[in-house]
Every structure is written in C-alpha cells, then in structure tokens.
Specification:
The complex is a heterodimer of chains A (281) and B (294). With 281 residues, chain A is mostly helical. Helices cover 73% and strands 0% of the residues of chain A. In chain A, helix 4 packs across helix 10 and helix 8 (171-179) runs antiparallel to helix 9. By secondary structure, chain B is an all-alpha fold. Chain B has one domain (59-293): MetI-like (MetI-like fold), CATH 1.10.3720.10. Chain B is 72% helix and 0% strand. Chain B has helices at 3-32, 50-57, 59-90, 97-104, 106-109, 112-122, 129-136, 153-177, 182-190, 195-223, 227-232, 244-254, 258-282, 287-293. In chain B, helix 2 packs across helix 13 (258-282), helix 3 (59-90) packs across helix 8 and helix 8 (153-177) packs across helix 10 (195-223). Chain B is globular and about 75 Å long. The chains are: A mainly alpha (281), B mainly alpha (294). The interface between A and B is large, with 94 and 88 residues.
Chain lengths: 281, 294
C-alpha cells in the first residue's frame, strides 16, 4: 500500500470513529446514568460510571404505579397499538404490493409512484381534521384510531418495499403451482410468502417502529391516562412540577430497547430497501 | 373475476385509507379555515377569509413563519453537508462497514420523546453533564443555558434535530453514491486525479440530481416537525422556537381556535407547494446534467 492509500484509509476510519462516538455516546451515557441513584444524577460533578449502581429508577418507574403514572400499562398500550399497526399494515401492504408487482392495469405506475411521493405530504395539516374526524366517529381516546392513522403513515412505504420484493420472485414459480392445481391464497402462503420473508419482516419492523415512537397523533387523539402510549406517558412525566430524572432516563431506555432489538437484525434489508427506493424515486 | 379487477381490488384498501387519512383532511382543512369553529361545536358559521385576516394581524404568526424558515433551512444545511461526507466514507468497502451503517441509522429510529428527554437532561444548565464536560475541558468559561436562552435555543434544537435525522440523508446519499460505477474512480485515479477532483468531477455531477431531490424532501420533513420542538422547548423561550407546526397545535388544542389553526395549515400548504414549484421548475439542475445522471 502506498502512503497515500494508508492515509486515506486511516482518515476513513477516523471519520467512522467520530460518527460512532457521536451516535452512541449519548445512549451509553444515559444507559449508565439510569442505574445511578438520584444524588449522582443531579450533581454538578457527574461521573460516567455509577458509583453505587442501583435499580431504584426502574423500580420507581415500574412498581410505584398510580392511575396517572402507570408506565407498565403505557408500555402494554404501546405494544398493543404497534402490533395492531404492524399486522394491519402487513395485510394491506402484502395485497397492495402483490397487486403492483403482478397485475397489469391502468394507473398502476401512478399508484406505485404515489406510494413514495405521499411522503412529501405535510402531516402537520392532518392535526385538526384528523382530530375532528375521529371525534365525529366517536373514536377519540381509542387505540383503534391510532392504529388506523399509523397504518396510513406506514403502509405506502411498506407496499412499495414489498412490491419490489415480490417482483424479485420469478412468476414461473406461481404459474407452476397454479398448473398443479393450487389456489390463489395457497400460492401466496406457500410460495410468495416464504420467498419474500425478509421483505415482509422489514416492512413489519418499519410499521412497528413507526407506531412505537409516534407522539403527535397520540397527543391529540388520546384523552385519558389509561389509554396513553409509552412515549406520551413518559412525556407527561416531564410536565410535572418536580421532574424526576432517574425514572425518566430508565423509561427512555425501556422505550429504545424494543426498536433497536427490532431493527438491528434487519438493518441490512432496511438499507437495501431504502437504497432501491431512493435510486428509483 | 377478471385479472384486472383482482389487481384493483388488492390495492383498494390502501387507496381508501390514503383518501380518508390524507386527501379528505386536506379538503376539510381548507373548509375549516373558512369557518368560525368554537371548540367542541360541530360547525360554526361561514366567515370567509376572516380567520386569515386574524392570523395575518398577529405578530406571533409572522414570527412563527420566520422561525419555521430558519428552522427548515438550518436543518437542511446541516443535514445535507455532514451526511454527504459520512456517506462518502461509508461507501468504501471496509471491514465491518455493514455494522457501522446499521449503527449510524439508530438515531433515526429512536423515538423523538427519548431524544427530547435525554437532551433536556444532558443539557441542563447547572446539573447537566454536557455543561460539566464543556467546563472541564475549557471549551466554555461559564455554564451555558442551551435551551433557556433566546439566542441559543434555536441553534441547539437544530443541532439536536439534525443529529436525529442525519442518518436519513446519509442513507439516501449513500444510495445515490452506490449507483456510480467504481471503474470511473479507478480510471480517474490512473489519470492522477486527487480525491477532491474525484468529488467535484465525478461524484457531485452524478449524484447531484438525487441529492437535489433529497434536499426538497428534507426541507418539507423538517418544516413539518412538531414533536421534538414541542417536547423540548414548547416553542419557548419567548416564542423563539415556535415554528408554524407548534403554533398550529397551540392554536387548535391550547387556545381552542381550530378555524384559525386550519388557516395556518392552508398557508403552510401553499408555502410548501410554492417552494416545491420554484425549487423544481426554476432552480433544478440543468437538463444535460440530468441526462448524465440517468
């Protein structure tokens, strides 16, 4: 290797190191701090590692429950809404993606483009009308309303992603199965589904992540504390007179964990899907 | 059933959902903006452009518009430049690059509420760790009130938001970079081109169009951000971080004037549409470049 090449490679690694530190250090710092007792969190001389590690913040958050501060319930609500969104999104996106990939009809190209271009839509516009709409339908304060909105946010991208996965499956496989007498749904279940599994997992993870962290619609559509999702519940703790940072840091970690666990194993497919989308769009 | 019909049937649910959640609200926003709607009442009287007149007469609206433009442009500047550099590095075939690419995406998937809470704690003026380390290393002489001072709150928010969204730009620019054949760089290197020349003569002309589009996407997305600002500063201190989305929320759900909130929403819509038209019609890269890019 020439010296110039060595210099280039080391600059690359240096940049990567800086980026990784910039991305990871806040999380790691907060993670360690969530195990600190209050006097180590609220101090003018903070340390990186806890001196006297404690689980007290997590205990306060999870065990000291009151009707308006019921974090385990908020987590449960978030799981309910996110899983509902994921399932509904996957059903719609599989149907839609399959249609875009396999059937020929007028307006198909336009529909495919719309799935990506809908993301230029200014969502802040939805605030008042969506509230009014669900209010008129008597669906305020229901998780179902959130699931509908979150599905609408996630489904266009998932449909697009899945249609590109379905296109990668040779149609001959399905035709052969049809010749053997298999019916539509069986073909999908036996052939398309297994072959597109990475795509379906990625679309599912995208829908889950979208729903899991959403704050704005939860804020306007949910009314009572028993219905709150975890992001909304945690945010209300910061509006109190005396902010208890310990449990908040613990809660932050409990909210991050599922999305990271959901995402990291699928990151490869995520990146591939986005890259394909960006190049085409 | 004919095959065509089945194809339509399969996309129908998505179409209905998009119509109900995106298109119908778009139309009703315009309608609401022309009515006087007291909160909780289904329909007030038609008042024409009165809501717009009220909004235009409020200094808070003009300040919000200015804040929004500063916010969107500031974020755009950070989110196109830094990710470009990072994407160029991540485009190299290095050991462990897949894991690095995955980790870089994490800020983007972390919920806004988590970023907000952690940032508020880390940036506390007296007890915050960031101030402690800045003092200790001598970068600042006095403790800085990042989120509480009039001049600093907006830049701090822009930095936080850009931290959260830089992975998006990075990933899309990386996608664009991967369309460039590696042979081009090898040929240039044989001809003795330095890295800067490679960037200005090969990389930039070839990915310019995609980056151009990402720029618009980033502008619109940043313009619409509500959650991070609301969760960190609620538009304060002294309305210096109150962008139009925050103002819409406040007007509709805190001071209960949904009609006026809708007229702000309509103004945002017109504004963004105008930006889009100007951006793509007048400022778009030249035709020749586009052909090369394709």
């Amino acid at each position: 290797m020439s010296t110039r090449r060595i210099a280039e490679v080391s600059i690359n690694y240096l940049v990567i190191a800086i980026v990784l530190v910039g991305v990871m250090s806040p999380f790691i710092y907060v993670a360690f701090s969530s195990f600190k007792p209050l006097k180590e969190i609220m101090t003018i001389r903070p340390a990186f590692f806890p001196h006297q590690p404690t689980l007290k913040n997590y205990q306060t958050l999870l065990l000291a429950r009151t009707p308006i501060r019921n974090f385990p319930l908020f987590l449960f609500n978030s799981f309910k809404v996110s899983i509902g969104t994921t399932l509904l999104t996957l059903v719609l996106a599989c149907l839609g993606g399959y249609s875009l990939a396999r059937y020929r009809y007028r307006g198909r190209e336009l529909l495919g483009r719309m799935m990506l271009f809908i993301y230029v839509f200014p969502t802040i516009l939805l605030l008042v009308p969506v509230y009014k709409m669900f209010s008129r339908l008597n669906m305020l304060d229901t998780h179902f309303a959130l699931i509908i909105v979150y599905t609408a946010l996630a489904v266009p991208f998932c449909t697009w992603l899945l249609s590109s996965f379905f296109r990668g499956i040779p149609p001959e496989l399905e035709e052969a199965a049809m010749v053997d007498g298999a019916k539509g749904l069986t073909i999908f279940y036996r052939i398309v589904f297994p072959l597109a599994a990475p795509g379906i997992l990625t679309a599912g993870a995208y829908a889950f992540i979208t729903a899991w962290g959403e704050y704005m619609f939860a804020l306007i559509l949910l009314m009572t504390s028993a219905q709150r999702t975890a992001p909304l519940g945690l945010a209300t703790f910061t509006a109190e007179q005396y902010i208890e940072w310990g449990p908040l840091l613990a809660g932050s970690w409990l909210i991050i964990l599922p999305v990271v666990v959901c995402f990291l194993p699928l990151a490869k497919y995520f990146i591939r899907g986005f890259i394909a989308g960006a190049v085409k769009g | 059933m004919r095959r065509k019909t089945v194809g339509y049937l399969f996309v129908l649910p998505i179409l209905v959902l998009i119509l109900v959640i995106f298109l119908y609200p778009l139309i009703s926003t315009i309608r609401y903006s022309l009515y006087d709607i007291p909160f909780g009442v289904k329909q007030g009287p038609f008042v024409g452009l009165q809501n717009y007149r009220i909004i235009f007469a409020e200094p808070v609206f003009w300040q919000g518009l200015r804040n929004s433009v500063i916010w969107a442009l500031g974020n755009l500047a950070v989110q196109l430049t830094i990710p470009f550099g990072i994407a160029i590095v991540l485009n190299h075939r290095l050991k462990g690059i897949d894991l690095v690419r995955a980790i870089v995406l994490i800020p983007w998937i972390v919920p806004a509420v988590v970023v907000a809470i952690c940032a508020r704690w880390l940036l506390l003026p007296t007890m915050g760790p960031i101030n402690y380390y800045l003092l200790k290393t001598g970068i600042v002489a006095r403790r800085v009130n990042f989120l509480g001072s009039l001049g600093l709150a907006m830049p701090t928010l822009i930095a936080l938001n850009s931290w959260k969204f830089f992975p998006f730009g990075t990933l899309l620019i990386l996608a664009a970079l991967q369309t460039i054949p590696a042979q081009l760089y090898e040929a240039a290197r044989v001809d003795g081109a330095n890295p800067w020349q490679c960037f200005t003569r090969i990389t930039f002309p070839l990915v310019g169009r995609i980056v151009w589009f990402i720029g618009f996407l980033a502008f619109v997305w940043n313009f619409n951000i509500f959650d991070l600002i609301w969760l960190i500063t609620q538009g304060g201190p002294g309305n210096t971080t109150q962008t139009l989305p925050v103002l819409i929320y406040r007007t509709a759900f805190k001071t209960f004037r949904p009609g006026e909130a809708s007229s702000i929403a309509v103004i945002i819509m017109i504004f963004l549409a105008a930006v889009g038209i100007i951006y793509f019609r007048l400022l778009s890269p030249k035709k020749e470049e586009r052909i090369i890019a394709q």
